[in-house]
Structures are given as structure tokens and as C-alpha cells.
Amino acid sequence: MVMDIFGRIFTQINEISGRIPTLSIISGLNAGGAAYASVMTDTVIMIDGSMMAVTGPVVIKVATGEEVSPDEMGGAQLHAEKSGEAHYRVPDYPTAAQLVKRYFSYLPQSMFDFPPQAQTWERSGARPDLRAIVTSARKNARLKRNANWDVRTFIDAAVDVDTWFEYHESFAPSVVVGFARVAGVPVSIIANQRSVLGGSMTAASSSKVTRFLRLANTYHLPVITLVDVPGFIATQAESEGQILSKGAALLMMYPNVMVPQISVVIDMAFGGAYCAMGSSTTETERSRFCHHYGFPTGQIAVVGKEAGPFFTYGFNGGDAVMRNRQQQRYETEYLNMDMAFAKEFVVPLEPEDLRKRLLEDVPKLYASYQNYWRKLAKELKLVQEKCHYPVSYTHLRAHETTSLISYAVFCLKRGGG
After folding, report:
1. Is the pTM above the cut of 0.85?
2. Side-chain-side CA neighbours of residue 287 (13 Å)
3. Residue 273 bears catalytic tag
4. Going by C-beta distance under 8 Å and a sequence separation of 6 or more, which residues neighbour residue 39?
5. What's the rounded Cα separation, in Å, for the pair 287 and 258?
6. pLDDT tens for residues 117-134?
């Protein structure tokens, strides 16, 4: 039966999922079981003119009477921009082939290996002046002018030259994710994009980050998070889009990331969204692989200055002069990094030192992580020998925070010797 064949395909994909990097290229019509098999892989590339859907337009017309085109049902643009099922959209197959080659250059052969490091070169000439960008944006915000920036400028200033490779670019653009190298080490980058929705987190962007974190964690890519987030968007549409559950999934994902993490607050870090973006508040016992920094010009608080006076002072209403006065008071007293630095939630980092700090931290943290992982692999092998039960590396990641002794007991209860 066809269903049995597809069931076997799904099982095989599931068995290799998280063990070796997988990728699908959609170059034509792709419906039913083939579409499910494609989205089960780590990454999906769609070529313009292709389609990926539960079923095709002909079946839909017969079953429901609705007439839809292949593009409307599951075209490359739809999946790249709206559903998020396609991570890359390309015009033709040669472009897809080049993209595949670059994509796999950042990943290991399997989760049992580490990604390949590469020799890199420093940029000739000056890097972007991050301090000037932040200072200018803050001034413009006070004057009610455009205070946006493209966070890719900060990424470009932080990573090795010509190594930035964006991932899932067209979907949920209020957050930017992608691969790069720092001191030759492959890393994953997550950054709030201020020029889109002010960098606010949505249900879609939460899912985007959660899935990318899972990919980075599986294939040993250190996570660098550039934080500039005013909060989760609170609208009816986002509530209907399950922002609570998808935000919660992100909050649960960061603490379970095993690879080294470095977060930098580059400006705003408000409310639960700050916690969701890899802050020190969500650390676990693996904190030895985590460093948290903040620009002195940053702001860590529960809310911004518009709502701050109401929550802090109980102030609600008044004329424009009084509101402005209360907002300035809140900004002076709370919208700063003083408490965060004093409580050592974050370590001060000057904007111009971002690249230097990453060059120092990434190789050291990654070397420690590699030693830690090799030790765990040896202990896992011992558990397998003692329990006479096939314990997978996938289980190791899922249960890494529990003791291996407890895990050995678990194996024995499952029928080990």
C-alpha cells in the first residue's frame, strides 16, 4: 500500500532527524506524503514555480468545489513569507545548488562531529561605528524621529568578513537568524530587527527562533543573541495566532540549549521578551558556557517609558506636559543598565568592543563545550555497555540535564541487563 510506503519513509526520516543534517529542494509539484516528508527535514528550499501542499488544486476542486492555483495553494512565495515552511526561496536550480553548498559548509557531517572551522580574514578598513548608531537612534527617539536601524549592521560588525549567511529571511522579519563565523568557528546568530515592528516578538518570530535554536543546538553551533526587543506584541490577531504557547515554547527552548551562548543587549530589553531572548534569567547548570553582556546605553526594564509611569507610579492620565514629565522620570530612574550591572545579570560591554569580545569568548567557550561533549559521549557509551540497551544520542540531548546514573536506572527498567 502507498500509505505503508510513506509510513516507512516518515519513519526513516524521523530516525535520522537530529543525527545528520537533512535538506529538501522543491523543484516541481509536491503534494501529500511527499510534502510531509519534505517539511520533516531540517531545511526546505523552494524554487519559484514549485508547489508544496497537503494536496493538489485538482483534488481540492473535486472535494470542495474551490478553485485555487498551485501558487495560491502552496507556492514558493506563500511558504517563504507566510507559512514559514520554506527556509529559502530561489529562482532556479543552479541557485539552489549553490545555496546548498554554502548551507552545508556551516554544518557537521552528523551530530557526532563538530562543524568544520575555516581560516578567515579581518576586514580591511574600519567597521561600522556601533556607538554612533545607538547614540543617534536614542536621540532620534527623543525627538520623535525615525530611530530604526538594520540589525545586520551589528551582525556585520561582529562576525568574520563575508561569512554571514541568513536563514529563513522572508518569514517573520522582526527577528533575523542565520549562520556566520567568529574566529573561524561556525556560529548561529539571532537578532531582533528594529526596523520591523520595532523588533517586537510575534507568534511567527517565536516559532522561527525556536526552530532555529533546535537546529543550532543539534549541530553544535554556538548561539549569539543580539537583544533589542520591546516585548511580545499584544493584539487579538497574535492571540489567535497562539503567541502565548509559541512564546512559551521559546522560553523553554533557550534553557535547554546545550551549546555555548553569548547574549548582548544592544538597546531595549523589556519584559518577558527579554527573558525569551536568551537572558541570564533562564540559565541552567550549563551557565559555564554562557556569557551575557550589555551596552552601557541599553535599557533593561519591565516595560518602556510609555507604560512605565502607570505600572511604577500609578500615574494614569494628565495633560501632555505631566505625561512627559513622568515618562522622563521613569526613564531616568529605571530605563538604564545600572541595576542589571549591579546585580551582574549582564556584564558591561562597550559597543566598539563587540567584535573583540566575541573573538575572545567564542573559541574559549567552544573548546570547553567540545571537551564537555566528548566526556558525555564516553559516559553514554558506558551506560550503553552497562545497560545492554541502545541509548541514542538524541536521548542524551533530551535528558542531558539529568544524572547519567538516573538515566542508567531508566535503561534498566526498560529491559536492560
Report:
1. yes
2. 10
3. yes
4. 24, 52, 85
5. 10
6. 988 777 777 778 898 898
